[in-house]
Every structure is written in C-alpha cells, then in structure tokens.
Amino acid sequence: MCGITGYIGDSQAAPVLLGALKKLEYRGYDSAGIAVLDEGTITVRKAKGPLSALEEKLADAVITGSLGIGHTRWATHGEPSDINSHPHTDVSGQIAVVHNGIIENYLSLKEWLQTREVVFRSETDTEVIAHLINFYYTGEKASGGMPKPGFGEPPLLRAVQNALERLEGSYALAIAVADYPDRIIAARKDSPLVIGLGQGENLIASDIPALLPHTRDVIYMEEGELAVLYRDHVELINAQGGRVIRAPSRVEWDAEAAEKGGFAHFMLKEIHDQAKALSDTLRPRIKNGGIVFEEFDFENFSFEACAGEAKRIVITACGTAWHAAMVAKYAFEHFARIPVEVDIASEYRYRNPVPGEKDLVIIISQSGETADTLAAMRLAKKGGNRILAITNVVGSTLAREADLTLFTWAGPEIAVASTKAFTTQLMCLYLLALKLARVRSRVTEGAYRNYIDELARLPLLAEELLSKQKLIQRFASRQFNKTKVFFMGRQFDYAISLESALKLKEISYTHSEAFAAGELKHGPIALVDKNTLVVAIATQTALFDKIISNIKEISARGGASLVITWEDNPFGPVADEVFTIPKTLDPFSPMLAIIPAQLFAYYCSIQRGNNPDKPRNLAKSVTVE
Ligand code: F6R
Q1: Is 468-612 the same fold as 260-463?
Q2: Ligand 1 midpoint to CA 390 (Å)
C-alpha cells in the first residue's frame, strides 16, 4: 500500500525523503516520487519502478530545498507509470500532493473540474485533490484573503478544508504549497499517518520506521484531523476545526528492530524473531502463575464480566489474521467450551450479521489499519457489541476505536508476508481462551496453571525448531518446482494448513491450496498426480491413523508427501519426508507447526528467484477495499 512522507527542517529534504521512503518500501509499491520546495518553486521528480529508478533520476540534478513530500505508490487508479506516480500538482504546479487511500468520488469531481477548464495529466484519483485545493485557494486569494502566516486561519488551510469536505473515501495526505515555504499540511481519514517531532525539524509518515532516524517522539493523527507542520512546532486541528493539544508518545523499540539484523531478508529475520516475540507477548501477562490482562482494568469493560457473560464469541479478520481466528475457534471451543463464529471481515461487513446481545467480538489485525477489518469492527460496534482488538500497532485505528486492545508486542513486521504477527496473535488468543476457560470454570485451577506453564515453554521450543531450518531448506531445494502444493490437516492442523498454503502462494507464486484432510476424497484428490506435493500437518495425536490413510491415498496416485508432526510419530514408513517439531500439548501445536511451513515458503521463494520480502501485487497494509 502507498507510503507517504514529508519533511520540513534545516537539512536538505530530498535525501531525507528518500531515506524515509526506503523505510516504507515494505508496504509494497510500484513507483515513487518526491516534491521539494525551494525559493517559491516546487520541483517534482518521480519514476516507475524501484526507488533506485528515482535515485537515478535525482542523480542527474541537484534538488535543493528543506521542505518536501514523498511517496511510494501502489497502483489503484491508473497503471504504474511515471505520470501516474505521486506527487501530483495542480495546473499551476504550485500545489503538490501525495496521497495514500482511495477517493471514491474522484470521477464526478474530475468531471466537475473539467467543466472548469482543468486539464488532467494522470489517470489517478489523487490528482483531483491538487486541483480542488487550487480551485478553493484561488477563490480565497481572489476574495482578498492573501496569505498572512501566523495571523488567523490562512486561506490555504480554508482551501484544504473545503477540498477535503468534497472527498469521499480514504486519505492520508501531505501537501506542499509554493506560497507557504514554512509549512506542510497533512490530513488523515481512514489511512494511517504519524507525525515525528524532531529538533528543528518535523516529519510526517505513514509509519514509524520512516521517522526513527530523526526522532522517537511521535504524534498519531486521529481520524478527520489536519496537521500543519512547521520547522519548530506542529498544530493539530480536529474535524470540527478546533485546535487539539496531544502529548507525543515515545517509541520504545529500536530502529534496529526494523532492520534485517544480519539476515538475508526481513522475512527470515521475522521467522527467527518468533521465539522472542512469543515470549514478549506472553511474559507481561503472567502474574503469580495466572493470566492477568492489566490492559483490561478499565471501568467500563471488565474482561472477566464480559467473558463470564458471553454466550458466543465472534471473530473477524482478513488473510493471515483470519487464520489466527480459525485456530482460535478450536482453542476457545476446546478450552472454554464457548461457541465461536469466525468470519472473513470482507464477508462479515456485507452479510448483514445478526449481533447477539452477549457476543464478545474479537477483531484481529497486525496493522490495525485494514479497511475491511475496520469496517467490520465499526459494524459490530454499531450493532451494540463490545470490541476486543488484537493488533501489533500501538496507535493504529483499530487500537484507538476498539473498547479494549491486546497488543501482540511482536515488534515491527516489515516483510509483506506475515509471520511473527501470526504466532503472537495466536499467543494472545490462547491466553484469552485459557483465561476464559478459568473464568467460566471450565478448567480447574491446577489444570489452568499447568497449561500456562506449558505455554511458557513454547518460546524455547520455537528456538529449538528454528535451529533445524537447514532440513527445510534442503527439502525446499528439491520440491520448489512442484506445480501444485496442497496442505491438509484436521482441526487445529486444518487452520495451520490454510496459513501454510497462503504463505507459499504469496511469496513463491506456487499454486497452493489447503483443505481439511477429511475432504480429500470429496474432490481435491482428483488433482493429485506426480507433480503434486501434499504437506500434511499432523499434530492431533488421536487423528494420526486418519492422516496415515490420507497419505497412502496420495502416494498411490504418485503424489509426494511431507508430514510436519511430533518427534514421536508413526509416519516414517508411509510419507516421503517427515519433519518433526518438539512436543508440546496437541492443542498448542499451531504456534510451532506453522514455523516449518513459513520456512518452506521462504526457501521455495528464494529458489524461484523471488524477493520474499516484497511479493508481486501484494501490499503490507491493505487500507483500501
Ligand atoms: C499474509 C498477510 C495478509 C494480512 C491481511 C490482514 O501474509 O500478511 O493476508 O494478514 O492483509 O492484514 P492485517 O493483519 O494487517 O489486518
């Protein structure tokens, strides 16, 4: 998804903007650009392709100026091209805009502007914003309201407010205007934006890693807010036009946490981060052998009361987070014996769901900014449900709008394919399931404590498992050319099969699907031939025999098989390969069993010559539908 940034300070803006855009690359993009303001002139440079293409263009000419805005574009309206790249300017070239989001009514605005002789250069929705601001700004100036910096509401701000009022859809915007060399204007609606407060410089960006080389003091912009960034201070204005004072938050994690730390790719680093991330998610919530959610001690939402009363749990999310929800369904039903309904957020929001008065609604999202997930949350809220969010991003829209939030504490996840966010989401969900089980007296105090002790072993077991990555690497080097890879399992293992198939297709571009192993004979077996690899996830000991039969059926049709299972297992004689994971309780297997599948996807991607960190067509944060 697009990344935006802006800089105003004493340094040259162009290198700062390029540095910030590099930190936003992980979001996925197909072109990039910057606009720098100097002595009343805005210079724009943009290029299709990687940032290096933009850097090449910039190498031709020195672009001076200490105010600028920058953008990495992930095409939605109009193909990736130099012209469609941001920044976009108005007809006069005096107003430059970068935008993340989608303007849904851009066609009608475009037609309206065209009747006023505005000539469009690009196919983007964003260009209308620059022209609209110009339209109102010219009007303001014509009516005598010339810029008077620091003296009441300047015409520019009024023009931006008027333009924003006409926009339907989502936006994070940074705007530079030649008449105003002392400020950048930023605005947000349904797309994230963070302000970085530096010494004699201020910045804006879609995400924190872009700010960290300059500052750790940040302000998360709220829905509908405008910000005016000067060199030495920042003004915030809410949707009603009132001034807002908000204390900055301090970013506690290190810039290095967002770097590769010696690994070839962010994805591999993040797979390896999982042992620590699981521990970071678990430890703060264990007190005297029990589970304590200190974040839940709010007056209006006692988790204990809500969980005790809940008749049903509804979980909704997208992609990998939805797979975490699938695992949670089995965990909540197994431990707490409470019915769970799981829905993909994009389905939930349009299917006219029936909210139960005593539903506990859990929303899961790594980024906390996924458009469908936020829409599902708002719908559930409107239906009277209380919302418990699980997210990795402090200050995200989800965290701010939910009644309660459990943070996954996974640290920044940069690779597009989610890994440590998934396992830490699972850890949060297991903690909730066990707490719920205890609150509802579904487990004895002794069993509850034993379960917690076992959860606490998982980071170590993950470490042990990761030390065997070479075995998976070798296996991937033999199998990466398979044209079809199927994952199958039962119950918890079915949920992990879904996530495993997603990982493989995302980064290796291999056609992969998951199915519940019991479904094999109901259709998928028709596809099995000698070009097929079937990976069975087999951690539910009571169902081992069933999986043995499934594997025999696959071998009989020429398919190759790998089983991911416990060390003590019966699969050696039937499967082509067995990869073992250290033993924990069967219901806790998902937090370990996914790791070999992540590694398999990673190494297949490498073997096929792909960049696993930036898979084609995918974006890290899907802030549009
Ligand atoms: C897969 C992946 C996506 C996300 C999905 C939801 O590796 O990353 O499927 O899980 O786009 O994103 P969040 O969790 O940010 O809502």
Answers
A1: yes
A2: 13
Residues whose CB falls within 8 Å of the CB of residue 232, separated by 6 or more in sequence, listed in order: 200, 202
**Fold of the domain built from segment(s) 3-256:** Glutamine Phosphoribosylpyrophosphate, subunit 1, domain 1 (3.60.20)
Taking only the tens place, the pLDDT of each residue in 350-367 is 888 888 888 899 999 999
CATH H superfamily, domain 468-612: Glucose-6-phosphate isomerase like protein; domain 1 (3.40.50.10490)
CA nearest to 621, candidates 271, 205, 54: 205
What is the structure's pLDDT at 79?
A: 78
Choosing from 2, 306, 428, 604, the catalytic residue is 2
Category of 319 on φ-ψ map: left (φ > 0), alpha (ψ -120 to 50) or beta: left
Measuring CA to CA, which residue among 332, 338, 587 is closest to residue 454? 587
- The atom of ligand 1 lying closest to the CA of 319 is 9
CATH architecture classification, 260-463: 3-Layer(aba) Sandwich (3.40)
Residues forming beta bridges with residue 67, ordered by sequence position? 8, 37
pLDDT at 151: 36
pLDDT score recorded for residue 147? 43
Span 286-300, average pLDDT: 76
Res. 390 pLDDT band, cuts 50 70 90: very high
| Tokens 């980071």 sit on residue | 459
Check whether 596 has a pLDDT greater than 70.
yes
CB-neighbour burial class of residue 145 (10 A; exposed 0-12, middle 13-18, buried 19+): middle
* pLDDT given for residue 146 in this prediction: 46
Determine the angle formed by the axes of helices 127-142 and 106-114, rounding to 10 degrees.
50
Residue 512 tokens, joined: 């992969």
**Residue type at 149 in one-letter notation:** P
Token pair belonging to 19: 């540095």
Token pair, residue 423, equals 């396992």
pLDDT of residue 257: 67
Contact 30, 48 (CB under 8 A): yes
189, 420, 482, 620: the active-site residue: 620
Find the mean pLDDT for residues 404-420.
91
Task: Please say whether the beta carbons of 323 and 501 come within 8 A.
Answer: no
pTM for this structure? Answer: 0.73
Tell me the three state secondary structure of residue 398.
Answer: helix
- HEC states along 456-506? HHHHHHHHHHHCCHHHHHHHHHHHCCCCEEEEEECCHHHHHHHHHHHHHHH
Task: Clarify whether 620 is annotated catalytic.
Answer: yes
CA angle 267, 268, 270 (to 5 degrees): 65
Distance of CA 64 to the CA centre of its chain: 34
Locate the domains of the chain by residue range: 3-256, 260-463, 468-612
Look at the chain and count its residues: 625
500 Cβ closer than 6 Å to some ligand 1 atom: no
Q: Residue 152: its pLDDT value, please?
A: 43
Ligand 1 pocket, 622 CB below 6 A? yes
What confidence tens digit (pLDDT) does each residue in 523-570 have?
A: 988 999 999 999 999 999 999 999 999 999 999 999 999 999 999 999
Lowest mean pLDDT among 170-179, 302-311, 557-566, 601-610: 302-311
Cβ 3 vs Cβ 202: under 8 Å: no
Which ligand 1 atom is nearest residue 421's CA? 14
Task: Give the tens place of pLDDT for each residue, 206-254.
Answer: 988 899 999 999 999 998 999 999 999 999 999 888 899 999 999 877 6
